[in-house]
Specification:
- The chain is of the alpha/beta class and about 325 residues long.
- The protein contains twelve helices and 14 strands.
- The strands form five sheets. A six-stranded parallel beta sheet has the order 6-5-1-7-10-11, sandwiched between helices. A two-stranded antiparallel ribbon has the order 2-4.
- Helix 5 links the parallel strand 5 and strand 6.
- Helix 3 crosses helix 9 and helix 4 crosses helix 11.
- The longest helix has 16 residues.
- The radius of gyration is 18 Å and the shape is globular.
- The N terminus is likely disordered.
């Protein structure tokens, strides 16, 4: 990222950790399946069957990033909730984006964050506390704007190599994005699915979808009967958009944390950089910026509008910091 061996850090040539004896071969030190188990725990709804189906994808996704000589990571986030006070995107997805961005930037990778206009303020606020330069792309909610952005991303001198969507609502089988209640949110949600797949077009970058509820980009990998059986309103909200790899977690942010931890586990020579901001202090800084500056909300239900509060998926900040610490301890274990 670039994958420079620590023993040859003053040289300009690239060293891949899987092929160079100076970097070692396969010395991961952590069973990445342990990381999957940490983040795949059930919180409110039973997602055990979704987690089981995606088992192994965390390692595949992490290795794809780790093996790339010059990764450029695109990160999509922002789940806008009109039924909130004020209408704003939810907090889930924002911290996951910021943790990935901070870690990959510190390790030398390029990072581009992508969202749509309704979610722009909160996403921008979260990017502004990320150490390093994040390129931010904001699109309108129509398909033409997404496809225009896609063309610009493809034509860059340093195009994306990987695209990660975190807690980003997917188009369903009816071509409409739905909240968990089944509500149509197409008026507030750009079809960023078209950066993952589109008729007559194949993504030139590897794609990773991260979610927790069955209606997010990437969940199209799941057999629809699993979502229909295990998720309320599953037959209506089930995602149609898939990804090369799917990460399922109890909270979507946790899947992003696990991805960063897994790359760090695979790349011991970049572990310190990748995890340099992977702690409770940075987690709180991001959430505070998202809520106090970006007006991100949480705890939006059918009978209760979302509010400005320092929680993610109704869980207090401490619970999310505990997950970060658990992942970090697993990676750093001797």
């Amino acid at each position: 990222m670039p994958l420079l061996c620590s023993s040859r850090s003053n040289e300009s040539n690239i060293c891949n950790v899987y092929s160079s004896p100076q970097c070692g071969r396969g010395t991961v030190g952590t069973d990445i399946a342990v990381l999957e188990k940490i983040v795949g725990r059930t919180i409110r709804r039973d997602i055990s069957n979704l987690v089981a189906f995606a088992e192994g994808d965390l390692e595949k996704a992490a290795r794809s990033i780790a093996e790339h000589e010059q990764p450029h990571i695109g990160i999509i986030c922002g789940f806008f909730v009109r039924h909130a006070e004020p209408p704003s995107p939810e907090t889930d997805g924002l911290n996951g984006m910021a943790q990935l961005a901070a870690g990959f930037l510190a390790a030398g990778a390029k990072v581009t964050v992508i969202t749509d206009a309704p979610s722009a303020k909160a996403v921008w606020a979260a990017t502004k506390v990320v150490p390093g330069k994040v390129t931010l792309e904001i699109v309108d909610v129509d398909a033409a704007a997404v496809r225009e952005l896609r063309g610009r991303l493809e034509s860059r001198a340093a195009p994306l190599t990987h695209l990660v969507a975190i807690e980003r609502c997917s188009l369903a089988a009816d071509g409409i994005p739905h909240r968990e209640h089944g509500w149509d949110i197409s008026g507030d949600t750009a079809p960023l699915d078209y950066l993952f797949e589109d008729q007559g077009w194949t993504a030139p970058w590897k794609t990773i979808g991260i979610g927790d509820g069955g209606n997010e980009i990437g969940m199209g990998n799941l057999p629809v009967e699993i979502v229909e059986r295990d998720i309320p309103n599953g037959s209506k909200i089930a995602a149609a958009t898939g990804a090369d790899w799917l990460l399922v977690a109890g909270v979507a942010n946790w899947g992003a944390y696990a991805l960063l931890a897994a790359v760090a586990a695979i790349q011991p020579e970049h572990r310190e950089a990748l995890l340099s901001h992977f702690d409770g202090e940075f987690e709180e800084t991001v959430l505070r910026a998202a809520v106090e500056v970006g007006q991100a909300i949480d705890d939006s239900r059918v009978d209760r509008a979302g509010q400005l509060q320092m929680t993610i998926d109704r869980l207090p900040l401490k619970d999310h910091i505990d997950i970060i610490n658990e992942l970090r301890d697993a990676v750093l274990a001797p």
